Amino acid sequence: MLPTTTRVVTLLRRPDSSGPSPEDFALEERPIPELRAGQLLLRNIVMSVDPAMRGRLETSEKHYTTNFEVGEPLDGSAIGVVLPAGSGELAPGTVVRHRMGWREHAVVDAATVSVVDTDAAPAGAWLGILGQTGFTAYVGLKRVAEMRAGDTVFISAAAGAVGSAAGRFATLLGASRVVGSAGGAAKVRMLVDQLGYDTAFDYRAEAPGVGLSRVAPDGIDVYFDNVGGPQLVAALEAMHVGGRIALCGMISQYDESGRGQDINRLLEAILRRVTIRGFIVRDHEDMRSDFEHTVADWLRSGQVTALQTVTDGIDNAVDAFLGMLKGNNIGKALVRLDTTWVV
Ligand SMILES: NC(=O)c1ccc[n+]([C@@H]2O[C@H](COP(=O)([O-])OP(=O)(O)OC[C@H]3O[C@@H](n4cnc5c(N)ncnc54)[C@H](OP(=O)(O)O)[C@@H]3O)[C@@H](O)[C@H]2O)c1
Q1: pTM
Q2: Residue nearest to ligand 1 atom 47, measured at CA
Q3: Which residue minimizes the CA distance to atom 19 of ligand 1?
Q4: Ligand 1 centroid to 211 CA: how many Å?
Q5: Separation between Cα atoms, residue 136 and residue 214, nearest integer Å
Q6: What is the pLDDT of residues 271-286, one digit of tens each?
């Protein structure tokens, strides 16, 4: 029997200036819309938990897609399995990546999904290391920062989804030294002992400028910026002449309390002839097949792994999101919606 209702996470109200809290969200049972021509009914297996959702909760444009609406379901990347309903564009059992996460069942236009091969890699990897996360790390290093063999590369939020991928990729692309930062001593130890970083510092325990100059006393060539704020200033001040900064994310600036005046330090960019380039990964689709081939090979050979923090159940999805914003995740933050699947 096909389901007629589904549980969805909705936005109950917009967060106040102290940032999002569990009370801003609701878990509701909603009817599944009737399928139109060309649509598929999916059971979601696993979904992505992304910092970009933070900006979408507000009314301002601090993200690269649409704002969430109060009273309406959230959405985001997910992997789902096709159920036997609709016009049969894809065979039941086909596993697809799509944009209608934050619900257990989803109706999607068949034209908007991409089929993924869960024999080649588990479902979660298609959201993480082989999905938008890995792709962001790859594009940011190779195209945006124009990383070259021999570069010293600094990566912030280094134990997170994009950061941990960027750390591995930088080593495999020939960096001479890969430097990471993360919050907390345990994460910093993990960066060096398990995640392949050459050295690392705890941005909460010491000022980023002090930490970075201690672990990279000879300076850096590339900064892969996931956080903005004081770490961006520290990176600017550590740059070699002709250095390059890929602005990927600004998570330290997403809450009111984090916003500062750090842009004043841009004089350093002039003095050091630094290239600073912001990017949005979806503008670089031409690199997708190069990325998938390269990283699938690295995954097969064991040179990279699909590092992830998996939370089970839609009931715990909001906690997973709020926890990720606080740094509770190592690697890609995922919510598994169907526990019969290995992700
Ligand atoms: N430009 C693009 O196209 C694109 C695409 C994907 C993602 N992004 C951006 O890339 C960044 C990383 O995304 P992700 O999915 O990989 O998330 P993630 O790094 O897995 O999770 C976010 C991490 O940010 C760190 N963090 C939280 N507050 C912080 C603060 N005030 N200062 C410094 N670090 C803080 C936490 O780690 P700690 O424990 O180390 O604090 C947390 O684990 C985000 O800024 C995201 O918006 C951009």
Answers
A1: 0.96
A2: 249
A3: 160
A4: 19
A5: 28
A6: 999 999 999 999 999 9
